[in-house]
Specification:
The protein has 114 residues and is mainly beta. Helices cover 0% and strands 54% of the residues. It contains no helices and 11 strands.
C-alpha cells in the first residue's frame, strides 16, 4: 500500500523559513512527477511547485524566487524549501505524486504569523 508521509510544517514568523519533506512509502511504478499543492481556508487547492523525474521544475508565480523544490529519486522523496515566508503562504500543504495514478499526502499545516 502506498503512503505519502509528509513532515516539516509548523508555525513560523513572516520572513522565516521552513522545509517540507514527503517520503513515498511503498512501491510506485514509473513516477513522472512529484510536487506540492496548498489549500488555504475558503480557497481552492493550488499548485505550489512540481518537479519531474528529469528534474524539470515548475512554480506558482507567487512563490518564484522564494521556494525551491527538489527530489531524491533513489529515495522517492521530495522536498520544498520555503524562504521569506509571508502570511499569505499560510495553508495546508499537500504532497502529490503522479504516475499512472495520482497519490496525495494527508497534508501538513504551515502557518506564517507574528
Amino acid at each position: 500500500q502506498v503512503q505519502l508521509v509528509e513532515s516539516g510544517g509548523g508555525l513560523v514568523q513572516p520572513g522565516g523559513s521552513l522545509r517540507l519533506s514527503c517520503a513515498v512509502s511503498g512501491s510506485i511504478f514509473s513516477i513522472y512527477a512529484m510536487g506540492w499543492y496548498r489549500q488555504a481556508p475558503g480557497k481552492q487547492r493550488e499548485l505550489v511547485a512540481s518537479i519531474t523525474s528529469a528534474g524539470r521544475t515548475d512554480y506558482a508565480d507567487s512563490v518564484k524566487g522564494r521556494f525551491t523544490i527538489s527530489r531524491d529519486n533513489a529515495e522517492n522523496t521530495v522536498y520544498l524549501q520555503m524562504n521569506s515566508l509571508k502570511p499569505e503562504d499560510t495553508a495546508v500543504y499537500y504532497c502529490n505524486v503522479r504516475s499512472v495514478r495520482t497519490f496525495w499526502g494527508q497534508g501538513t499545516q504551515v502557518t506564517v504569523s507574528s
